[in-house]
Known about the structure:
Largest sheet: none
Strand content: under 5%
CATH class of the largest domain: Mainly Alpha
Radius of gyration: 21 Å
Structural class: mainly alpha
Amino acid sequence: MDRHDVLTPPAPSRPGALAAYRRLPAVAGWSYLVVSALARLPVSMVPIAVLTAVTATSGSIAAGGAAAAATAVGEALGAAGAGVLCDRHGQRRVLLLLVAAHLIALTGFVLALGGAAVPALLAAAFLAGATLPQVSPLSRVRWMRLSPADLRTAMAYEGVVDELSFVAGPASVGLIALAAGTSAPLLVAAGVTAVFATAFAAHRTHRVTGPRPAAPATAAVPAQRTRGRAPSVMRPVLGMLAMGAVFGGTQAALTASATDAGRPSDGSLVYAALAIGSTITALGMVLVPAHVSLRRRWFLSAVGLLAGALAMLAAAGTTLALVPATFLTGLFVGPVMVTVNTVTAETGGHRTGGAAMTLLTSGTVLGTALGSALAGGLADAAGTRWAFAVAAGAAAALIALAAGRLAAPAGHTGAR
């Protein structure tokens, strides 16, 4: 059966932001919106839960940080591999295998907390990250194939849900750990994965991501398209690497600033202002006129992001001043994230959509780790204020990436 016979999107409705978002449940169903939102929570829960559990059981912040880093590296590598497998074999089969593997990995990690040596803990943390079901990028792939006409609205919606999950996930870890112990968040994350990631894998929308037939080996045109598409995929991946550096650098710099003020826990609270600002503008991206090109959106959003990063640098040392500066930065995070994902969706191609989208996740995860390490090193070596220079430098890199042509496949002009 052809995928277009499985899920046929309704005819476009009248223009407007509310009407645009109303089309999403009409295309995929309300159950899909709920399941895909909850299924991505473990991605934001597991790394911080690993950090919390290892730090508490070992008494070493260094060990906890190393375990969190191992989780991040595992996630970055696992995400890219999962995307390739989903393109080849379809999402349902791969996701169900990942769910089973992740539950085994988390069980092994919890058991290792009972007294395993640090190398064993690091290996278990790596496997827990590598097997995390990457619902967020794979959900974007489904939208690419469900209804291309609604792609920009879907990317805006996905950006909002991602931001909310990265607020709710760490917060839930803290509350669960406080109420039931430091291992409990890992068990809750396992339960969420078992229920909602499985439901996401089995949801009827998976049928639009079935195995794609291999391209004819002798076809010259697909080869040309592949060569032309590579730069357009790599540019967003580098963009998400820079965005990850913004996240990691800002988190580390805010934590250092709050620690200097004698209130280390304030760092995460101030960082929430970034997520709030990002959610607001990501939601409003559907209001941007269609004639405003993706290249212009990327460039202007990156310029705003640089302004916000410089505002944080100027406000360093004063928590009260950092809140509005961080919120200002967040206002431009949402547009950059939505735009980069949209560029990938519109230029990455349907055959390799899973690989392209999960590569963005890998870039973000690695960028976050790199940004955090750089900002932490700068805070120790040159003072807290200079830790914010990492976010500013990453924003400048985003401007440089936007300055080049966002290449698109032949016949497509939306990404220029």
